[in-house]
Specification:
It comes from Paramuricea clavata (Red gorgonian). InterPro entries: Znf_C2H2_type. This is Sperm-associated antigen 17. By secondary structure, this protein is mainly alpha-helical. The protein has a domain of 102 residues. It has seven helices and two strands, in the order H-E-E-H-H-H-H-H-H. Strands 1-2 form a two-stranded antiparallel sheet. Helix 5 packs across helix 6. It is elongated.
Length: 180
């Protein structure tokens, strides 16, 4: 069995089972113990509250009700300048949060790669064997990397854009200006 990554040399996964640091949070003492402060309340008087340290966030694991609106709690939940932008930074397909709209758009391309691969598999099932062989021959003639780059050159149609599949990294990185 081949593994792509080595085993962790520390107990990181014991401390961070989700692999990532918990999002920033603000807590206040109530009659029932520590409770997460809602971002809207925090924004009214930010100097009244102090962000919890990492140890408290790991132990309490309590998030405000606003965080439950998202599949993944945004790291910018308490950031005043990001309040209007939070929903625009969430991927519509998988619900993951990204720090900017540009990062979300780059992420969305990975979804189109999966969809195009599924469509190609579906198309190959419906096509005859001869048609599939002709398509493969045409793709080999064009070069898969350059073919994918041509498809991605049309920036406006992101739904049709696929990322190139690099089968030979050394060949892909060779300069086109060096004679062979």
């Amino acid at each position: 069995m081949i593994f792509c990554c080595e085993l962790f040399a520390t107990n990181w996964l014991d401390v961070f089972p989700e692999r990532f640091l918990p999002p920033p949070a603000v807590y206040e003492y109530t009659a029932n113990g520590l409770k997460a402060v809602e971002p809207s309340e925090h924004l009214k008087d930010p100097k009244k509250f102090i962000f919890a340290d990492l140890e408290k966030r790991l132990i309490i694991k309590n998030l405000p009700a606003k965080a439950k609106e998202f599949k993944q709690c945004p790291l910018d939940l308490y950031c005043p300048s990001m309040q209007e932008k939070l929903m625009r930074c969430v991927c519509e397909k998988c619900g993951s949060y990204w720090p900017s709209e540009a990062a979300k758009h780059r992420h969305k391309k990975s979804h189109s790669v999966k969809e195009s691969a599924a469509c190609q598999a579906k198309d190959s099932d419906t096509l005859g064997q001869d048609d599939v062989e002709e398509d493969v021959m045409e793709e080999e003639d064009n070069g898969s990397a350059s073919h994918a780059m041509e498809i991605c050159s049309d920036v406006e149609s992101e739904s049709n854009c696929i990322m190139p599949v690099i089968e030979n990294l050394a060949e892909f990185l060779n300069s086109p200006f060096v004679e062979k």
